[in-house]
Amino acid sequence: MASDLAVQVEGLHKRYGEKPALDGFDLDVRAGTVHGLLGPNGAGKTTAVRVLATLLRADGGRALVAGYDVSRQPAHVRERIGLVGQHAAVDEVLGGRDNLVMFGRLFHLGKREAGRRADHLLERFGLADAAGKPVKRYSGGMRRRLDLAASLILRPAVLFLDEPTTGLDPRGRNEVWAAVRALVADGTTVLLTTQYLDEADQLASRISVLDHGRVVAGGTPDELKSRIGGDRLDVVVRADADLAGAAAVLKGLADAEPEVDPDSRRVSAPVRDRVAALTEAVRILAARGIAVEDIALRRPTLDEVFLRTTEVAG
Amino acid sequence: MRLRWALADGWTITLRDLKHWAAQPWQIVFGLLFSVMLVLMFGYLFGGAIEVPGGGDYREFLLPGMFATTMLFGLEATYTAVTTDADRGVTDRFRAMPIAGSAVVVGRATADMLNSLLTLAAMVACGLAVGWRWHEGIGAALGAFGLLLLLRFALLWLGIWLALVLRSPEALMALQVLVWPLGFLSNVYVSPETMPGWLGALAEWNPLSATVGAARELFGNPGWGGDSWVAQHTTLMAVAWPALLVAIFFPLSVRAYQRLSR
Ligand SMILES: Nc1ncnc2c1ncn2[C@@H]1O[C@H](COP(=O)(O)OP(=O)(O)OP(=O)(O)O)[C@@H](O)[C@H]1O
Ligand SMILES: [Mg+2]
Where does this protein reside within or beyond the cell (chain A) (predicted)? Predict the structure, then answer.
């Protein structure tokens, strides 16, 4: 195997009853990078992470993590990974420090070393002030950061993060993002699952788009975004009669056919140069006397990403 | 080496429970108060309503049954602890760490047994305060305590197995539907011989009845006696039942733990 790959997956299959959760899942993650696994609910993200973290046995295929086979050498894999599951897996009753010391002891650090490591991690994740407070009184963001810290006690070679910011407010999200960025600076390999394109965009150097248990598109965030059309320009017109006119204007500015939604009187199209497209649209719409209720630039939603990627793939 | 780590890791996980006690002392206190309240309630409230076999002291008769019922209710504590960990993902974190699965279980078992020992000690103290005594010497009394804890130990595996199979903290209610009849359909309060035929047989064969019968005998406290084979061999059954429970539910628990990766 290529030694610069921290995760190497070939043709992973896993089914629950009749329903496949992973259906020929392939993945290569280069060591020292953040790889985003992007997919909607039920795409198989958690299943993939659980197989890679030795929690779940695949029905077929092969997966190497840090050079070891997850099904044949799980003990070696476990010594080299950290896992942050979809829900913070820490003891709610204990304080943050007691949690980290306990996990440190379970990683077979000496008593003194476990304490030192706990203090270091609390400091690093901005939890030193809450070290003695029971975790059930932590905010969502603090809990996540403690969860991250607990996964980093042994300085794992590969860290799995399953939707680390789902359910967090923007502030908690930023806290977790900052923590992940700091990790990568340290050289940890991170496989991150997310439902949000912008999260993958912010953190990952490569993205795989997962749908129905297999990768339907992959590449750097820029590649992926240009393939799916980057930002979108939305125009909401005041009168139904202007819909066709607005669509004609956007068609001239966009890289693809605009989508028209008569119910909300919205015309939407992917654009490449966002600011130029916006100013041009405003100018032309005004010149043609089309009354506009709202006009906005936005990132494509995941649905749009999937529409496009399945179009591209199929 | 592996065994040493399994034991050390098990102890770390036990310590975690002990720290829970320290962090929420009121929970332990309320747990103990509940047991004490049971003793007082049954000892004084219902004391007059039940004819004690051989005309002995009612509380002498009652206490061994209360001890055993408390051991039975320990099942709920085990169940709650295991499902809560599974629910919060703590079990997954343990499983993704380089520690033996047996360590997690040993830790759980030790913590629960320590907890039960503490509860039993509180109930014994309370029993002594309300006039309960043992009469057959300290050796026999220790034997009785041993049988009570043996029952708790056996139920531990039933609790772990149920928790791993049902996996839902909410199913505790369903578990209580199972546990409470087991507590009452026994020789703890009423003589099985006064129950309708098949119900009485069920009560006599209830593992709880075996432990209670044996404990009464070993403490020298009044009991129902009875002519059936089980009623005559309570001590044997108080060992055989837990042994059987362990033989069934220990392997099942191990298998259920391994099946988490399915
Ligand atoms: N234990 C299970 N039993 C049965 N089906 C399951 C189980 N776990 C997952 N599935 C199914 O497998 C598919 C993939 O689920 P998975 O949890 O991996 O998706 P996901 O991408 O993590 O979704 P989400 O964004 O909701 O977390 C889903 O259709 C799900 O219903
Ligand atoms: Mg998931």
Answer: Cell membrane
